[in-house]
Amino acid sequence: MQELIAGIHAHTTFSDGSGTHAQLAQAAMKAGLDVLITTDHNVLVQGLDGYLQKGRKRMLLLTGEEVHDQTRRPGAQHMLVMGANRELAKFASDPQELIKQTKSSNALSFIAHPNDIPLPHSGEKGFPWTNWNITGFTGIELWNQLSEFKDRSPSRLKALFHVLFPAFYPLGPTTKTLELWDQLLLSKTHTVVAIAGVDAHANKKHLGPFSRKIFPYEWHFKSLRTHILTPKPLSGELNQDRQMVYDALRQGHCYLGYDLPHPSKGFRFTCNTEDGLFWMGDTVSARSGLTFQARLPMRTHVRLIKDGKVIKEHYDREVLTHITKDPGIYRVEVYIDYLNRHRGWIFSNPIYATP
What we know:
- The protein is an alpha+beta fold.
- The chain has two domains: about 1-260, Alpha-Beta Barrel (TIM Barrel), CATH 3.20.20; about 270-355, Immunoglobulins (Immunoglobulin-like, Sandwich), CATH 2.60.40.
- The protein contains seven helices and 20 strands.
């Protein structure tokens, strides 16, 4: 399998971001991304999918959309739509219809920042997802970088510190969002793919007498990434590469990596059975035994989660192995020490083991 590093959920001047698509693509290239997916609010910017090439390095730009109902106050229920060939914002008022129309377009639907909270001291509203009487969406943003900033900044002073020193605030997905994801996974209605969303705007904000850009695009793209596992590298053939990236995301062949402390590239979570080797996002049969293995890029703290509960945990290890015949939903969490805190580093998508 090949590994593509993607930055997902970024805004341009077509909505409320400060940079053009070309400027975001340049920032993504400098940050070492292979794929950048922009998602402007309620506008599908067409005709800009393509590549930025520098020497042997190729970066694929894809344009999606962040759809929400603009008649709501505040405008909650944000959904990232990727891969659609038509404008779907007109269905925003009915989330289930939006999901239906997304599927009919062979596109993906991810619930954005599901537990987003307001930040009253800075005038920021909360944009959580509230309608859970829906089915069929592709997945959720398990870790949204801008939403986490609001969670970790309860006071004006704390917010100012995080604006000035942004590497100090990311700790991982919130407990509430991890628990929500496990509940959705256990609901048995369908698979729920987790992605990381940087939610990059790079706008200038005012905190009292201070003014600063929150946060530069390049910083976002260097830190929180979705690592996508694909059968081959980018070929330079746009339609083929675009479909390959979206197919991998749809299948959950990806993991979340916070790459500032240490690159997470090379992480693997697999399951070996008599039927072969399976990857994150795959469904396997537990009838003849399962051998799960997580391989880390460095020695650190790793947990194996089954049905929302920790069943195995190692400290200072590069490999975790678990042999079982028990069906369930298995996923991995990895933590790392950075800037005097124990922080979330890698969160895998599940492997689904059926009876």
